[in-house]
Amino acid sequence: QVQLVESGGGSVQPGGSLRLSCTASGDTVGTLYMAWFRQTPGKEREGVATISSGGTTSYATSVTGRFTISRDNAENTLYLQMSNLKPEDAAMYYCAADRWVSFSRALFESPYAYWGQGTQVTVSS
Q1: Which of 53, 57, 75, 111 satisfies CB 3.0 to 4.6 Å to 101 for a cystine?
Q2: Do residues 85 and 123 make contact, with C-beta atoms less than 8 angstroms apart?
Q3: What average pLDDT does the chain have?
Q4: In the beta sheet, which residues pair with residue 77?
Q5: CB 2 within 8 A of CB 27
Q6: How far apart are CA 66 and CA 40, in angstroms?
């Protein structure tokens, strides 16, 4: 069983930056396929960024060039560095993981068995 705990959310002005963290237990981040998703009320959960166990990354078009997913195997932690934040980036952000995910499905919810509780990001002036 993999447990995931997110942190780092908060309130930031448009154009600002935040770094989200997701600490894993029960397995090591370097062996998992991991992802960040986000959700706003009334909308479906949206895939934001993914990283395979081999280090291959993928991003939603809306965040490409602004967000960076990375991991620290020694800290067993996944990160999402978010820059040039926009009001439309405001959401609850979730960390997800599974032991095997097809690259073509990585930005979809269904492949992931393990989820964190989420951390809230607010972007407003």
Answers
A1: 111
A2: yes
A3: 96
A4: 23, 72
A5: yes
A6: 19
Question: CA 118, 9, 59, 13: dihedral to nearest 10 degrees?
Answer: 140
Phi and psi at residue 12, to the nearest 5°:
-145, 155
Rounded Cα gap, residues 114 and 3, in angstroms:
7
pLDDT of the residue at 114:
97
Place of tokens 């965040």: 63
Distance CA 33, CA 55 (A): 9
* Closest CA relative to residue 121, chosen from 49, 39, 57, 47: 39
Q: CA dist 125 to 11, 14, 50, Å?
A: 9, 6, 29
pLDDT interval class at 98 (50, 70, 90): very high
Where are the alpha helices (H) located in 1-114, listed in sequence order?
A: none
Rg of the chain in Å (alpha carbons) = 13
The Cα 84–Cα 67 span in angstroms is 9
